[in-house]
Amino acid sequence: MDISIIICTYNRANLLKFTLEALLRQSLPPEKFEVIIVDDSSVDDTFNVYSKFKIKFSNVTYLYNSFNIGLPLSRNRGIEVAAGEHVLFTDDDCIPSEKWVETMSFYLHKNPVVGGSVETPLLNYLQLSFICIRISCLYTCRRNKTCKDDCWRKYGISKGCFKRTGWFF
Q1: Does residue 44 contact residue 76 with C-beta atoms inside 8 Å?
Q2: pTM higher than 0.85, yes or no?
Q3: What DSSP state is assigned to residue 84?
Q4: What is the largest CA-CA distance in the chain?
Q5: Between the CA of residue 30 and those of 9, 25, 47, 57, what are the distances in Å?
Q6: Per-residue pLDDT tens for 7-26?
């Protein structure tokens, strides 16, 4: 398996279902990637959304945090179980385009970190460009906490590169 997609969620089952439906429409064959849902102790219908998705897509893992640990540590949990050489992150309110996984995979084989486009139903916008980010910039950003959260909404990184620069904190 080449790609692991990590989606962290908390009480947003109504939005998560759109993200998962978009992943069913990816141009990359489903056997080429896995989806990891990290539920940060939701009390809504998130587990049922996962269960319905599991019927249509077998390469899905559901992790439930028994108490709310927050987004950074939830992402770390997803990375720990990821089978893919490359890890993609998207949010539970994002709708990846049909070629998102395929395109991110293509660029991740050439760059250690890649940002990509998604559409979000809450804001109804589409970022159009793919941006290659130097790992030194990523490292500085994470260590100094100078980046806005939005720069972490939709990107991919090789697992080896991620392990060399450190986990989310």
Answers
A1: no
A2: no
A3: S
A4: 42
A5: 22, 9, 21, 7
A6: 999 999 999 999 999 999 99
